[in-house]
Amino acid sequence: MTLPLGYRYASSYAKIRKVAKDDLALIVSDTPASAAAVFTANQVAAAPVVLSRQHLAATKGKLRAFLINAGNANCATRTGMEVAQQTVAAAAAALNIPANQVLPTSTGVIGVELKASLITKALPKLVKQLTPDGFQKVAEAIMTTDLVPKTATAELSLKGGTVCIAGMTKGSGMIMPNMATTLGFLMTDAALPAPVLKKMLTAATEESYHRLSVDGDTSTNDTVAIMANGASGITLKPADYPLFQQALTKLMQDLAAKIARDGEGATKLVTIHVSGARTNDEAARIARSIANSPLVKTAIAGSDPNWGRIICAAGYAGVKFDPAQVDIAMQGLLVCQGGLAAPFREKELKKRLDEKDVHIEFAFRGKRPGRAKFWTCDLTEGYIRINASYRT
Amino acid sequence: MTLPLGYRYASSYAKIRKVAKDDLALIVSDTPASAAAVFTANQVAAAPVVLSRQHLAATKGKLRAFLINAGNANCATRTGMEVAQQTVAAAAAALNIPANQVLPTSTGVIGVELKASLITKALPKLVKQLTPDGFQKVAEAIMTTDLVPKTATAELSLKGGTVCIAGMTKGSGMIMPNMATTLGFLMTDAALPAPVLKKMLTAATEESYHRLSVDGDTSTNDTVAIMANGASGITLKPADYPLFQQALTKLMQDLAAKIARDGEGATKLVTIHVSGARTNDEAARIARSIANSPLVKTAIAGSDPNWGRIICAAGYAGVKFDPAQVDIAMQGLLVCQGGLAAPFREKELKKRLDEKDVHIEFAFRGKRPGRAKFWTCDLTEGYIRINASYRT
């Protein structure tokens, strides 16, 4: 795994969460980096989201550090903004950088006061532990109900040389498209202007995190952020942008799929492919409706090729269509042909549905261009067990 | 329980479903009745829905009978429309009435051919069994995954005398607002014109079935229909309309709440009250978002007063608001005050949340008029168990 140059990472246990597992982390660029972020669209935005927006606006997209804590969302509390500001100030002081070059992010329980001192006291020591090798450790520290850390890297050969992108993400519940979902941190050693970075991140988010749903819920803290520090010595030329965009989108899709696969209680990653819609947006709406249907998700948990639930979920997506034009395949086997049952081998299909990767292809006949790919997971009793006692 | 005059009911087992339990039913008015219905908005509408729409249009709202089968949705099949027409014709012949005065409705599995002969053969005998006392038996015959039959009746004293309304409904999963949900059959012995009846049914549906969600899914077959046969001898005057509307709405809310309480795997009926919104529609959108949140529903299953999930779900309802203006109470105890944690007795509240009826009050401060009441249920492992193996 090749990581981008010029970044250091550290994490420690600051006693924010009850269990003794790292809950505080820093990702620092050695030099000021172009930066951009996509935030939750929830009306109830956590204090760190509000402060992060202010920082990126003030610096016009320049950052040195991501400050991350797990165990407490610092949301819907009396002292939220104060805590965010104090912890950012402490990080900036320890790193000797301007406060507004720190992007604060939090994840965890909502509505419980977060003690700033837990973080401010831990920061000087944490800064001393920063190391280029801390990437994986930080990916573990930011986990909440995640079962596995989620990372991805990409190398991109350009005329001028090679640049790297690395990403880590967390999240396994409360994940829903139409907003930045969960926490995601992306680092590249390419150099490119902040406005271009912002555009690329937004486009990549649209095709990755916004095409992801575990339970249809959307958090108050969701943030996906990127730094580009130029430590590779390579400044992207406009001709390189499409390639970089493609690599970034692919990497973020990889991260999004990892979140779905690790969905709370999930046993299967479900990838939904919609094609032949009028527009990509209509395709995405249909895919999202299928992905959010508890009936579809429980059927897949039970390896039940219940295509009726799939076409039914598509039917209430708010997109007009003629069911007679719909073909549906599961695991490569046609189950619905022109809106009617196709003669498939039920035993064979049930066996294929026992696999860890399930693919649903929902295709409108004809040559219309609208397509979407969407990631979700099955819905099992495990989801209930995890969420019926989160706080206790 | 006083039933409206002039209706007869019958049900029998026609071998549509595998288990030997009544699956075919008739509700017949002795005389032609004014009639109206609200149907699913799903793009994939079952054949009986399509045919029912045609019948009501052709007769301008006149019916003699509801023909109902459980065990097969007669949807997304090659022979759907043919089967609907044949069974309607058989019912009309046996009853000696015009075919378009029969409203066909089906519920059950999608995408499996329904054998018309099962129904057409059973109908002559079924018609002979019609009796004013068959109301409860029919309410049981229309159940699918329902655990209990769901009925409600109302008596309404008007200047001219007393009129009755009775209703029965089925449904415990795949229930979601914004469409007619599940199957509902309403009978009254008042006389009123079909266009007025249609208006009243639509208004009452808006405040009842459209304010109901079990799992966010919406069926291809949902139908709520009413007949008004005038057998009481009382013709409603326009001055009586508001009272009748009120009674009809209340009765349908009662049925909707019964569906939520019997939601698949549900252990609790959850009633959500939103107040102080700009409009009733915005209040309903917030209530629906809370009602559809798996995180809220699992928290309630676990008697966890996790109000953070409630304000979070409101936050992604697509309605702009200031969290500082939000108060939330659960079981009458304030848990969130101005968007922040209120000091509540956690043990006491957890105990109250163990009750079978859970109330969530979500109030915006100020005097804005928008209100909504919404019904849902908790989400438990039972829901998963029921739906992971429906077809098998």
What characteristics describe this protein?
globular; 392 residues; Ubiquitin-like (UB roll); eight-stranded mixed sheet; L-amino peptidase D-ALA esterase/amidase; alpha+beta; homodimer; 11 helices; 2 domains; six-stranded mixed sheet
Report on the structure:
The structure is a homodimer of 392-residue chains. The radius of gyration of chain A is 22 Å and the shape is globular. Chain A folds into two domains: 7-261, 4-Layer Sandwich (L-amino peptidase D-ALA esterase/amidase), CATH 3.60.70; 269-387, Ubiquitin-like (UB roll) (Roll), CATH 3.10.20.340. Chain A has helices at residues 47-59, 80-95, 116-128, 135-141, 194-206, 241-261, 280-292, 294-301, 307-315, 346-353, 381-387; strands at residues 7-12, 24-39, 62-72, 102-109, 150-158, 161-170, 183-188, 223-228, 269-277, 326-330, 333-337, 340-341, 357-364, 370-377. Chain A has 392 residues and is an alpha+beta fold. In chain A, strands 1, 2, 3, 4, 5, 6, 7 and 8 form an eight-stranded mixed β-sheet that branches. A six-stranded mixed β-sheet of chain A has the order 12-11-10-13-9-14. In chain A, strand 10 (326-330) and strand 11 form a beta hairpin.
